[in-house]
């Protein structure tokens, strides 16, 4: 015991000594910076004079020099945002001596007129001469707009800009402009820069502004007419330090496919706005975040991040939370418990609750309540099991992570609004309207995080959009995925609701998005919009939230489309006809792109394919045949395949490659297979080496629509 006490005291003493050492080092560093500033001001010289002497006669002062802002990268290291230097071209007319000035002014004026074309050579010369002899003016900008770095390098060879003896006067005022190579894709998510302050004001630019902005430098500047500040000398007293680089989780391939699908549906429905988020189930990494707002007839732009800050009544996507609370509370078998929904309309207090299906669903099971999205059914179940336990129901919503923001590392997330019984707006029927997604406000991201937890077997994952912060190639901060240790509900409840969500797509309101290649699980949501305190008929907020492939979920996704317009039947404005098809299109494209989640295609090559020994371009094969004294391939087809029979003799068969979406590639070299498929617009991946022995897409019509093919070579 004594040894343990002494050991603890020694550790404490060592920590105190280290803290003192760090404190002294910081103090010494502060003294060094102070001494450097004094030295710069009173002892360092420029052209034989100290800066203090210059400042007495001129309007000189130390000023901050902006640093190069850090870059923002996608998950594959594609550049999403960077700062490019631009320069204003200025001229201090009184720097050069008289002989140099008058010998070179005509040449400079001619170059200005030829390259900048904002004045004639005589006009430029006249203005420069006026500034030269003026007692109050000396500095002017030679071009109204800034120039690029390459143009600056060219100008540095001109008179007055080159380092000529007794010349000088040419100045470059540096500014940085933010450039986004993928713009306008993900514009709102990546964010923007305030042109006046140079600080990020929205999106990732604002959320990670401190890391991106870097440390400004310090240098002497002269304040001239018009309030312009021009640098004095080439050296800076304190060099600026570039900002840190941000590495995001965004995949611009997914982002592009997402925005295309969303924009197409918004145009079709003349909707007000829409948003789509794609998230990786296990990690919470956001792969795409699209937000489009109507800005005029047929015009949609990213002007607001609805995914993060667009709160609304979620509608029937919230029925999943209510069903999970019912299952946790009762442990019922949802295929055995039934409710009678009647003819589709039920009087509840002073309100009429209706199902979307005209004529009602009649008697249905609890599972079918979710599959068919019955408002009446969910309210009846709530009356049966939670009528006297509103606090218990609310505690389940808290347990499901629905009452707090997700905590994503990005500014602007609007917290959810789910009332409790302390709220002044709470009434005796609030719980029943909450049960099917009304009297609350949630963002798409918060809804998606909940569905993602279901896909992740009950373990809630915080959405994340930044993985690393780097200083050049050195990782300074790595942001790991955050997964709750305790599941949001029991494994039995997860198993039951997963089956129900698959039922929504297999037999429920979203059965038209069912895929033959993989299973989608999800839930539709259609909520009337609250306008001036009234839920308005015909104004809908539609959504579809879910995940795929359902058997081994890798991606979760939510689609919201606001106020779709249609002259057809009411159902054409509901989520099943509006949001669900967008989900299907996005999921199909991701499934085609991500080979890892594709199921292997069996029997992908024709019968007796094992006999094929060679295949390729006929002319190439005949060169080989001639060298090996083999029977030549027939010339009538551009491509041919060879097989062996009867004691090693060769049999040639023509092979068609143009008439089919997916040709038979077996026996071909990687070079020929790659040439064929890439010319047909496919993305080719492969494993092994040698000749093609198997292909993930079978020969013939491409029924799957996939544009990615995996080739196995041996």
Automatic annotation (TrEMBL):
PASTA domain segment(s): 656-714
BP terms from Gene Ontology: cell division
Polar residues: compositionally biased ranges: 698-714
Instruction: Tell me if Transmembrane is a UniProt keyword of this record.
Output: yes
Q: Spell out the CDD domains in the cross-references.
A: PASTA_Pbp2x-like_2
Gene3D superfamilies from the entry?
3.30.450.330, DD-peptidase/beta-lactamase superfamily, Penicillin-binding protein 2a (Domain 2)
Bilayer-crossing residues are 21-38
Stretch list, region Disordered: 693-714
Task: Name any one Pfam family assigned in the record.
Answer: PBP_dimer
Q: Does the keyword Oxidoreductase apply?
A: no
Compartment(s)? Membrane
The protein's matches in PROSITE patterns, at most eight in alphabetical order, are given as: PASTA
What keywords appear on the UniProt entry?
Carboxypeptidase, Cell cycle, Cell division, Hydrolase, Membrane, Protease, Transmembrane, Transmembrane helix
What protein am I looking at? Cell division protein FtsI (Penicillin-binding protein 3)
UniProt organism field? Dyadobacter fermentans
Lineage, top ranks: Bacteria, Pseudomonadati, Bacteroidota, Cytophagia, Cytophagales
């Amino acid at each position: 015991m004594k040894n343990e006490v002494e050991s603890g005291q020694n550790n404490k003493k060592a920590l105190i000594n280290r803290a003192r050492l760090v404190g002294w080092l910081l103090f010494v560093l502060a003294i060094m910076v102070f001494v450097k500033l004094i030295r710069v001001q009173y002892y360092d010289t420029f052209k034989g004079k100290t800066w203090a002497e210059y400042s007495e006669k001129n309007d000189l002062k130390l000023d901050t020099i902006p640093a190069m802002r850090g870059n923002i990268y996608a998950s594959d290291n594609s550049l999403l945002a960077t700062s490019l230097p631009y320069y204003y071209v200025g001229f201090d007319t009184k720097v050069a001596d008289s002989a140099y000035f008058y010998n070179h002014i005509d040449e400079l004026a001619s170059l200005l007129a030829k390259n900048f074309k904002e004045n004639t050579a005589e006009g430029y010369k006249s203005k420069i001469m006026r500034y030269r002899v003026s007692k109050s003016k000396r500095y002017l900008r030679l071009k109204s707009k800034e120039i690029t770095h390459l143009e600056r390098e060219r100008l540095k060879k001109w008179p007055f800009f080159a380092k000529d003896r007794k010349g000088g006067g040419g100045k470059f005022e540096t500014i940085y402009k933010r450039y986004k190579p993928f713009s306008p894709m993900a514009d709102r998510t990546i964010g923007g820069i305030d042109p006046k302050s140079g600080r990020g004001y929205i999106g990732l630019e604002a959320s990670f502004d401190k890391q991106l902005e870097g440390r400004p430098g310090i240098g002497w500047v002269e304040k001239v007419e018009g309030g312009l500040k021009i640098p004095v000398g080439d050296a800076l007293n304190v060099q600026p330090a570039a900002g840190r680089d941000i590495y995001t989780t965004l995949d611009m391939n997914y982002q592009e496919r997402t925005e295309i699908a969303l924009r197409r549906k918004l145009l079709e429905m003349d909707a007000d706005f829409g948003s789509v988020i794609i998230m990786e189930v296990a990690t919470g990494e956001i792969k795409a975040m699209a937000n489009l707002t109507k800005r005029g007839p047929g015009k949609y732009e990213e002007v607001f991040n609805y995914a993060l800050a667009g709160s609304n009544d979620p509608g029937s996507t919230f029925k999943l939370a209510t069903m999970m609370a019912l299952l946790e509370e009762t442990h019922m078998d949802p295929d055995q418990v039934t409710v009678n929904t009647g003819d589709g309309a039920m009087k509840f207090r002073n309100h009429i609750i209706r199902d979307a299906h005209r004529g009602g669903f009649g008697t249905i099971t609890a599972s079918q309540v979710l599959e068919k999205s019955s408002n009446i059914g969910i309210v009846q179940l709530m009356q049966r099991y939670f009528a006297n336990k509103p606090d218990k129901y609310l505690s389940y919503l808290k347990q499901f992570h629905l009452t707090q923001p997700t905590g994503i590392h990005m500014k602007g997330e609007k917290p959810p609004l789910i009332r409790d019984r302390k709220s002044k707006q709470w009434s005796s029927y609030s719980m029943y309207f909450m049960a099917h997604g009304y009297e609350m406000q949630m963002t798409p991201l918060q809804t998606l995080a909940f569905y993602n937890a279901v896909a992740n077997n009950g373990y809630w994952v915080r959405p994340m959009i930044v993985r690393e912060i780097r200083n050049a190639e050195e990782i300074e901060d790595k942001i790991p995925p955050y997964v709750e240790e305790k599941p949001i509900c029991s494994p039995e409840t997860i198993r039951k609701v997963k089956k129900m969500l698959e039922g929504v797509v297999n037999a429920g309101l979203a059965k038209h998005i069912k895929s033959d290649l993989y299973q989608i699980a999800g839930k539709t949501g259609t909520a009337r919009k609250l306008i001036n305190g009234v839920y308005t008929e015909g104004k809908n907020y539609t959504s579809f939230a879910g995940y795929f492939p359902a058997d081994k979920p890798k991606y979760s996704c939510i689609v919201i489309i606001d106020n779709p317009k249609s002259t057809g039947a009411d159902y054409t404005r509901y989520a099943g006809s509006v949001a669900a098809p967008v989900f299907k299109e996005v999921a199909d494209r991701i499934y085609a792109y991500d080979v890892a989640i594709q199921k292997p295609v069996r029997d992908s090559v024709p019968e007796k394919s094992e006999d094929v020994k060679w295949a390729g371009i006929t002319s190439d094969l005949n060169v080989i045949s001639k060298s090996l004294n083999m029977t030549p391939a027939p010339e009538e087809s551009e491509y041919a395949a060879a097989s062996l029979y009867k004691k090693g003799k060769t049999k040639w068969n023509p092979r068609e490659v143009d008439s089919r979406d997916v040709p038979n590639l077996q026996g071909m070299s990687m070079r020929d297979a790659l040439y064929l498929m890439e010319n047909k617009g496919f993305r080719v991946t492969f494993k092994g080496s040698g000749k093609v022995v198997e292909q993930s897409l079978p020969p013939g019509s491409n029924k799957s629509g996939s544009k990615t093919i995996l080739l196995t070579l041996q």
